[in-house]
Amino acid sequence: MLLTKDNYYSVEANREYLSVSQFKGFLPSYGGCEARSMAELAGEYTRPDKTAFDEGHYLHSWNEGTLAEFKAKNPDLYSSRGPTAGQLKSNFKHCDKMIATLESDELVMKVLAGQKEVIRTAELFGAQWKIMMDSYQPGIAFADLKAIKDMDDKFWNGQIYENFIDHYGYNLQMGIYAEVERRADGRDNWLLPHMVIVTKQDPPDKAIYYFAFAEIQAGLNIVENNIGRVLDVKSGRAAPVRCEKCDYCRATKKIKTIKHVSELSLY
Ligand SMILES: [Zn+2]
Questions:
Q1: CA of 139 to the centre of ligand 1 (A)
Q2: N or C: which end of the chain has fewer CB within 10 A?
Q3: Which residues lie across from 147 on neighbouring strands?
Q4: Does residue 90 sit within a domain?
Q5: Is 263 part of any domain?
Q6: Ligand 1 centroid – CA 164 distance (Å)
């Protein structure tokens, strides 16, 4: 299957290729659920609440230079009634503010320069992977654009507090991107991944981070440690486990036992 921007996110493409988000979707440590992932791959389930996804789309279409087209194609970005009818909905107005923040920064625009939304594929850890780089400067670097709530947020993972990079698995993403790009291009060395972060705060904050070779290798190690189970489940060799917490499990849950009240867990 030849990947294009139109079919990149399709169920068919996800069946044939692993992506970073699909991989994380199998891992409970990233909020994933094997049962939900398999239902999605079977085309039996799509996740609710597209808003955050659409906000991400909005931002990425700006980076790609196709924001005007994206707005024209998506009338639901605009309020349809009341005194604000015809105006952008408030969350997308705020996206414009985030975009203005990025546009006004010279270094951000330098890092985000280059080819946009570039797809590459390669075999890695026994699977075909697909990546889409937000910005790509061949032979120099690539960059990913992320909108997050707050740069200083800390996340308890049951053992330690993690920063947003580790919590959302951006380390793993940059490792996979660096390795797939390297293999697809047939080189020995990695390009250094960059991440442009803009926050949803008002006014928005911004930062640029880069990942050196040690972080790329650490990200790849996380994948290597978990790929066996993911491929076993995806290929049907192992039965998917239900997390019983996610949107899919809640929507399809059947109670099988009555619990004693002391089984209610605090964490
Ligand atoms: Zn679940």
A1: 41
A2: C
A3: 198
A4: yes
A5: no
A6: 22
